[in-house]
Amino acid sequence: MAAGPLTWPQIEAFFRLMRIRADEWELRALELLDNAWLESLAEERAGQK
Fold first, then answer.
1. Dist. CA 36–CA 45, nearest whole Å
2. Which one of 27, 28, 35, 48 is at 20 to 30 Å from 5 when CA atoms are compared?
3. Residue 33 in this model has a pLDDT that exceeds 80
4. Intra-chain end-to-end CA distance of the chain, in Å
């Protein structure tokens, strides 16, 4: 099973279940962190080949 980006429905469900009202900057930060993690994972996999 490959890692994929977080989806907006997943993020929304998490915040709803945790009863957290996220600010726009928090959602943007999550998006940036997720993108950075996926890039790092791709680079790591490319180095293993």
1. 14
2. 48
3. yes
4. 18
Euclidean distance between CA atoms 34 and 49, whole angstroms: 23
**Which string of DSSP letters, residue by residue, matches 1-49?**
----PPPHHHHHHHHHHTT----HHHHHHHHHHHHHHHHHHHHHHHHT-
CA dihedral 20, 22, 26, 30 (to 10 degrees): 70
The dihedral region occupied by 19, where left means phi > 0, alpha psi between -120 and 50, and beta the remainder, is left
Q: Could you tell me the two tokens for 42?
A: 């791709």
| CB 34 within 8 Å of CB 6 | yes
